[in-house]
Amino acid sequence: MPRLSTLTPDTAAGERARTGTSADPAIAAITALALQIYREPMSITDEQVTALRAPGCSDRAIADVVCVGALNILTGDFNLLAGLTAGSGTGA
Q1: How far apart are CA 86 and CA 43, in angstroms?
Q2: Can you give the pTM of this predicted structure?
Q3: What contacts 69, CB < 8 A, 6 or more positions away?
Q4: CA torsion sign, 78 to 82 to 86 to 88?
């Protein structure tokens, strides 16, 4: 196993991570779906979901992303309703 001091950062991978994409077509496609669910959930079409299968996304992976995206939105809505903001949690 390499030591951390000998690892060099992959700048392209870091940039992809910051922009929410990937060099892997399946991960890039599913990430794009997740971002669209978060930003514009009503704009997703059947054709987009079908196109996710081309790079190898399974129905399970697609359903997981939809569920996590929906949970994220609902959690954000609950936090707004409860008056919670980042850093204002009761903490443990």
Answers
A1: 28
A2: 0.64
A3: 33, 34, 37, 38, 41
A4: negative
CA neighbor of 26 nearest in space, from 46, 6, 55? 55
Tokens 């949970």 correspond to what residue?
Answer: 71
pLDDT tens profile 8-53:
667 777 777 777 778 888 888 888 888 888 889 889 899 888 889 9
The amino acid that residue 42 corresponds to is M
Which tokens hold the place of 23? 């060099």
**Between helices 25-39 and 59-82, what is the axis angle to 10°?**
30
The DSSP call for residue 22 is -
Distance CA 33, CA 57 (A): 11
